[in-house]
Design a protein that fits this description.
A hairpin with a 2-residue loop joins β1 (7-20) and β2. This protein has helices at 51-58, 81-87, 108-118, 127-141, 157-169, 187-204, 215-221, 239-244, 249-256, 320-327; strands at 7-20, 23-36, 40-44, 66-71, 74-75, 91-94, 175-179, 207-211, 224-229, 232-238, 307-310, 313-315. It has an eight-stranded mixed sheet, sandwiched between helices. The chain is globular. It is α/β, with parallel strands linked by helices.
Length: 328
């Protein structure tokens, strides 16, 4: 990240462990990154790698086990409940399932108005001003005014997701976690929501943490991309750089699985063999070693730190420099 850009989010050694009958599940394990104001960090990886848990821990929807989250100069992990309530105005989340994340007994206007009332932006008697604010939000997210009194079950998935987006935008936040916001929608609707994401970011100067499985989408929407594997970051760099010259073997395999829309072009998919390592009480060493074709005993001798191999490009692999030189 350029020194001229203002850092709005700094995550330092963030950990989130869950206690299970078999031991501690390391869902998020020593994550470090910074995010500049107005930019988008895409977070990718297989299901179960800790992407959603990371987003929710940053917002303290999950209490962190260890580490710090510094947002706009304030230590989120040290905030009291009252301070967190105030901070919710600036830090919001949009969930994957638009139907499960909104109250089915509340109308569109009630759903969007709820955070405004909770945060005391309007008093119960300020109906006219509140309704005006709600309608402005509806216009911003592309919801027709005739839907103001509609209920979620009366709407399709795309409109329900727009309600969730409107609820998040009502307080005019600075930072939003998008947790798989389009994976439950039809392809044509996905494009509309993604375009809306970009328009809103430009209009409001928002900063995004964009969690997704869709690698082709994340390339175009993100400034940086962070690749996670079993709770850890294995590679992070500029989006264009990651797709042009991935270094970590897992990143290469992940990108090779992106479908090519031309049936005449042969895919060079890199198959991954072997068993997944357990995220419960994980052993020292690279967690990808069991599936990595380049693994050596050295890979499991100790934990592999995330190291910068060039400015703005960090990789957690003992052979990172070797792989980079081979591509040169």
């Amino acid at each position: 990240m350029s020194a001229s850009k203002q850092t709005i989010l700094s995550v330092e050694h963030l950990k989130k462990y869950f206690q299970t009958a078999s031991g501690q599940l390391h869902a998020v394990d020593d994550i470090n990154f910074t995010l500049a104001k107005g930019e988008t960090l895409g977070v990718v990886g297989e299901s179960g790698c800790g992407k959603s848990t990371l987003g929710r821990t940053i917002l303290r929807l999950h209490e962190p086990t260890d580490g710090k989250v510094i947002f706009d100069g304030k230590d989120v992990t040290a905030c009291s409940k009252q301070e967190m309530k105030k901070l919710r105005e600036d830090m919001q989340i949009i969930f994957q399932d638009p139907f499960a994340s909104i109250n089915p007994r509340m109308t569109v206007s009630q759903t969007i108005a709820e955070p405004l009332l909770i945060q005391g932006k309007y008093k119960p008697g300020d109906k006219e001003a509140l309704n005006r604010h709600v309608r402005q939000v509806m216009d911003r997210v592309g919801l027709a005014q005739r839907l103001v009194n509609a209920y979620p079950h009366e709407l399709d998935g795309g409109r329900r997701q727009r309600i969730g987006i409107g609820r998040a935008l009502a307080l005019e936040p600075k930072f939003i976690v998008w947790d798989e916001p389009v994976s439950a929608l039809d392809v044509s609707i996905q494009a509309q929501i993604l375009n809306l994401m970009q328009d809103i970011q430009e209009e409001m100067g928002l900063t995004y943490l964009f969690i997704t499985h869709d690698l082709s989408v994340v390339k175009h929407l993100s400034n940086q991309i962070m690749v996670m594997y079993l709770g850890q970051v294995v590679e992070i760099c500029d989006a264009k750089q990651l797709f042009r010259a991935p270094v970590h073997p897992y990143t290469k395999a992940l990108l090779s699985a992106i479908p090519i829309p031309d049936p005449r072009v042969k895919m060079n998919k890199i198959p991954l063999k072997g068993e997944l390592s357990s995220p419960i009480n994980p052993k020292p060493g690279c967690r990808f070693a069991k599936r990595c074709p380049y693994a050596t005993p050295e890979c499991t001798a100790g934990d592999i730190p995330l190291c910068e191999i060039e400015p703005g490009h960090s990789v957690a692999c003992i052979k990172a420099a070797q792989f980079k030189d081979a591509m040169a």
